[in-house]
């Protein structure tokens, strides 16, 4: 096995089932080696993952995208101020 300058060596502890699956992929000719299968899997996961959003940012993006209200930070503050003024007037 040759290691090129742009690769790094790591050691993984994988479940037996995963190793069996990797070996089956190699036997079926889908990949030349276990390493090739793992590299392909990571590349696929990376391309399918959302672009570097934290869970909180992702949730906010999903919520705002689902509502399509054109809500901005300023409009939320203004609405909150209106609500507080209305509640204050009722007292």
Describe the protein in words.
It is built from four helices and no strands. By secondary structure, the chain is mostly helical. The protein is 64% helix and 0% strand. It is rod-shaped. The protein has two domains: 16-48, no CATH class; 55-90, no CATH class.
Strand content: under 5%
Proportion in helices: 55-70%
Domains (count): 2
Query: Can you give the mean pLDDT?
Result: 82
- The tally of helices reads 4
Anisotropy-based shape: rod-shaped
The helix-and-strand class reads mainly alpha
Q: Using only CA atoms, what is the Rg? A: 25 Å
Order of helices and strands: HHHH
Query: What does the largest sheet look like?
Result: none
- How many strand segments? 0
- Report the span from N to C terminus: 79 Å
Explain the layout of strands and helices.
Blueprint lengths: L15 H12 L6 H15 L6 H13 L5 H18 L1
List keywords for this structure.
single chain, 91 residues, mainly alpha, 2 domains, 0% strand
Task: Provide a quick synopsis of the model.
With 91 residues, this protein is an all-alpha fold. It contains four helices and no strands.
